[in-house]
Amino acid sequence: MAENIKTRNRILLVATLSAFLTPFMGSSINLAIPAIGQDLNGTAIMLNWIVTSFLLVSAAFLLPFGRLADMYGRKRIFVAGIGVFGAASFLCALSSSLNILLLARILQGLGATMMFATGMALLTAAFPPQERGRVLGINAAMVYVGLSAGPIVGGFLTHYLGWRSIFYVVGLWSILVIWASQAWVPDDRHPVGEERYDALGALLVAVSLIALIYGASSLYTVPAAPVVTGAGVLGLALFAFHEFRAPYPLLNVRVLATNTAFAFSNLAALINYSATFSISYLLSLYLQVVRGYGAQAAGTLLLIQPLVMALLSPMAGRLSDRLQPRLVSSAGMAVTTVGLLILAAIQRETDIWIIAGILVLQGMGFSLFASPNTNAVMSSVNRKDYGIASSTLGTMRLVGQALSMAIVSFIFAANLGRAKITPEVAPQLITSTNLAFLVFAALCFIGIFCSLARGNVSREEREQG
């Protein structure tokens, strides 16, 4: 018994260490973008792809790797993912050009996807149902720690040691997680019986999402982008049709087709992440390029939002246990809409305390949305469908983040062209930022009604889940 508890706690430690990696790196890179642009002579469009390329690959391969791990062993995929992620981090640090950096970021995204697809599953499999809420809460807390540490630590590293130091730190952290995984996580391979991996479904969803996100990101710069985007949409329709008929589907789309609460909760998540993910990225550019703040000072200010999220998310989750989750998450979406509308009006001379207040507002809005929306998703399905629900929600999150950067890329291409991110283009940058926030506010406003449209989840259904 004691040995089992020791093993579980070690698995929790490994999952928690890995949960820190990607949010820390993502929020750190947002601070380092101007420095990377100066060092590697990057245009606004190319710098956007440093973020977008990572998200594109992560979104495209989450479902394929999740199913692969379920069939052939989560530890194997998890450890391989950390290895790819760590090696790609060192390659990022050693990059001599933006093209090499972009290639390394794609590899990083592939490794991160393998971790996304297995980390939660390892925890869920290791702990009994009565303990899962506690350990998943600890894991989620480490995500917020990573988001909170990224702006301040990333800003410090960029300011004093250069942007490459961020990738070195992440690479060294990855080595620690690999060692702990090999030493402490037991092998979990099991016979798959007659089940077969849905290779066609994996190919369709990966290629279609890559086409959709790449096409949407390149609508202004690549003549064939509309065709590529349309091909992505068509590919996803073919994927859904195939999954309906597949004997061992990658994703049971019948759950989406027949469960209104589940479908609209995932749609709300897609819209919310599409509208909010780029906030830190855009404000980082605004603070450093337009206002002249250093990376460390900008990071300190941007720390406000994840801190508010870390403080309020547990309370929002508990509130959604007492009230209907759709009401709490819809209120969060409304708060976020107001914050985005205010951000759409910021100018060079906007008081910095107003920016700080908006970050508090955005942290409140996202806290009220995220945990209750997850609660709504998981409460709308039976226990046997938890894996489907988790994978689908994760895919919505990553696709939403990628589409958020696609919108930014389109607007930047239209207003900045191939200009470099320097103080000389500050007026165009402010115009682009205002327009992006206005588009995001409109999306979030639509999302309020999608969130409300899911309907109530009965007490019996919530207790059953």
Based on the coordinates given, report the CATH architecture of the largest domain.
Answer: Up-down Bundle
What is Rg? Answer: 21 Å
Q: Proportion of β residues? A: under 5%
Protein structure class: mainly alpha
Q: Identify low-pLDDT runs.
A: 458-465
Describe the structure in brief:
The chain has helices at 2-40, 44-72, 74-93, 98-126, 129-161, 164-184, 199-217, 225-245, 253-258, 260-276, 279-290, 295-302, 304-322, 325-343, 352-379, 386-416, 426-452, 459-464. The protein is an all-alpha fold and 465 residues long.
Structural description of this entry:
Helix 5 (129-161) packs antiparallel against helix 12 (295-302). The protein is an all-alpha fold and 465 residues long. The chain has helices at 2-40, 44-72, 74-93, 98-126, 129-161, 164-184, 199-217, 225-245, 253-258, 260-276, 279-290, 295-302, 304-322, 325-343, 352-379, 386-416, 426-452, 459-464. The two termini are 28 Å apart. It has three domains: 1-186, Growth Hormone, Chain: A (Up-down Bundle), CATH 1.20.1250; 198-247; 255-465, Growth Hormone, Chain: A (Up-down Bundle). It contains 18 helices and no strands.
Keywords:
single chain, 465 residues, mainly alpha, Growth Hormone, Chain: A, 3 domains, 18 helices, disordered C terminus
How are the SSEs placed, and which strands pair?
Layout: H1 2-40, H2 44-72, H3 74-93, H4 98-126, H5 129-161, H6 164-184, H7 199-217, H8 225-245, H9 253-258, H10 260-276, H11 279-290, H12 295-302, H13 304-322, H14 325-343, H15 352-379, H16 386-416, H17 426-452, H18 459-464
